[in-house]
Amino acid sequence: MPRLVVVSNRVGIPDGGTRAGGLEVAIRPALKRRGGVWFGWSGKITDEEPGKARTTLVENVSYVTVDMLRDDHEEFYNGFANRVLWPILHYRLDLAEFSRRDLGGYFRVNEYFARNLENLLRPDDVVWVHDYHLIPLARALRDRGHKNKIGFFIHIPCPPPEILTALPNHERLIPALGAYDVIGLQTETDAGNICRYFESECHVRRVEDGAFDFDGRHVRVGVFPVGVETEALARLARRAIETAFVREVLDSLSGRAMIIGVDRLDYSKGIPERLNAFESFLTHFPDWRGKVTYLQITPRSRTGIPEYADIGRVVGETAGRINGKFGEASWTPLRYINKAHSRTALAGLYRAARVGLVTPLRDGMNLVAKEYVAAQNADDPGVLILSRFAGAAQECVAALLVNPYDPEAVGAAINRALGMPLAERRERHAHNFRVLVKNDLTHWAERFLSALEGRPAPAPVQYVPRVASGH
Fold first, then answer.
1. CA-CA-CA-CA torsion for 177, 181, 185, 191, nearest 10 degrees?
2. What kind and span of H or E run contains 56?
3. What percent helix, strand, coil does the chain show, rounded to 5?
4. Among residues 125, 190, 363, 440, which one is catalytic?
5. What distance in Å separates the CA atoms of residue 5 and residue 243, rounded to the nearest whole number?
6. Most buried among 34, 156, 202, 348, using CB within 10 Å?
7. Among this protein's residues, is 125 annotated catalytic?
8. Is 203 a catalytic residue?
């Protein structure tokens, strides 16, 4: 079997530390099963010319990392990737701040990655590139003569052409996807959007197998929704709820029901809107006051970008207002935590939570929603409240699906979830859990790599019918 080479902006070298990011959680199991190389940035910034790539071998995976010049990091990462691409791909044109200097840095870092990969790639390697930081990487490799099979997976949303064309220099950047062999997206909506762009802006034709013809290269667009290690997470959660940490948290609740939210501090996650919904819930359903505690775990991220400092300030102020308005000496309605927690700790907290509140304004998938479902006790499960604008809503159809922009509706959903009869909770959880088992992380990676390598694909995802009751 050809060697697998994974490429992403950051490399998740195992260190036994706190919770890994969503991309790392998704990629690492596939690499561990198959072995290979994970290449990307080390996380280190330097003012001098970066040295050679460094290799760390852990079991059957080589983690190969390079440092980044300070100016490159500022222009590529803090600049174009996260102040232009991230907001536009999340439908937030109002937050995009474009500069040609940052665009130049974005292409320069992709060329830098390609130069370092040149010394690493074998002719038969299969290359799997991840996410919006590295859209033009395949083009840079093709220009250097590499004919490897190269796939690209975008973990975040892909908006329609009407929004993509608002991206400055979109006609230079987005058509570079034509250098890949397979382009994977999270949902049918995302795939349809990029297909429409290829047809309307690139004027390329579809060929018989559903691919596009980019100057003789057949580029396949496919839907590969990311899953989680469903059954492994369920086993972990059963053990984790008995740990000292989780028991301490539960003891501190004094028998109150717990609502949980876990998100990076990012404006796409809809955290201020969610807190406003919790405030609406306490306002309109006063019988729950003193009987429920909302735990919001929100590690800070991208602290060098002003928009993230702004959202942190707004969330902190909103949390303070809610606790000041409703709190009592014996009860704090909202616990807002900026500390990251381990996978084990989160699994235990998910299992203990009566409600999982996952309400992003826009999300490619959102693995927290799936992790919450996987962690539940099937005999007495909690209820997932899920934004209809998260990719996970395409699969977790038995969740309470909500509009995150409507705080009163989300507040009413919280009330419904807390008071939901056991039979309905079991039915909804069983439905969602079956879907997650059929499309777990192993199936996701194998389906993508099978498409890239031209092998027969594993059995396709099978969706079970929607539950009869409303959402």
1. 70
2. strand 54-58
3. 45, 20, 35
4. 363
5. 37
6. 348
7. no
8. no
Q: What φ, ψ does residue 51 adopt, rounded to 5°? A: -80, -165
Domains of the chain are 4-227+442-453 (3.40.50.2000), 230-438 (3.40.50.2000)
What is the rounded distance in angstroms from the CA atom of residue 282 to the CA atom of residue 279? 5
Beta strands in 59-111 (DSSP E): 61-69
Q: Is the dihedral of CA 338, 342, 345, 346 positive or negative?
A: positive
Model confidence pLDDT, tens digit, residues 11-25: 988 875 544 566 777
Beta strands across the sheet bearing 400-402: 334-337, 292-297, 257-262, 355-358, 383-387, 400-402
Segment 84-130, tens digit of pLDDT: 999 999 999 999 999 999 999 999 999 999 999 998 999 999 999 99
Sole residue written with tokens 């890994």: 20
Structure tokens, 50:
């970066």
**Radius of gyration from C-alpha coordinates of the chain:** 22
Between CA 178 and CA 215 the distance in angstroms is: 9
Contact status, residue 25 vs residue 367, Cβ threshold 8 Å: yes
Residue with tokens 């970066």: 50
Please state at what angle helix 367-375 crosses helix 343-352, rounded to 10 degrees.
Answer: 60
Host H or E run for residue 295: strand 292-297
Would you say how long the chain is, in residues?
Answer: 471
User: pTM of the predicted model, to two decimals?
Assistant: 0.92
User: CA-to-CA distance for 137 and 371, rounded, in angstroms?
Assistant: 31
- Tokens 């099963």 sit at which residue? 33
Residue 246 · residue 348 · CB < 8 Å: yes
One of 146, 155, 429, 443 is an active-site residue; which one? 155
Give the confidence band of 469 by pLDDT, cuts at 50, 70, 90: very low
| φ and ψ of 207, to 5 deg | -110, 180
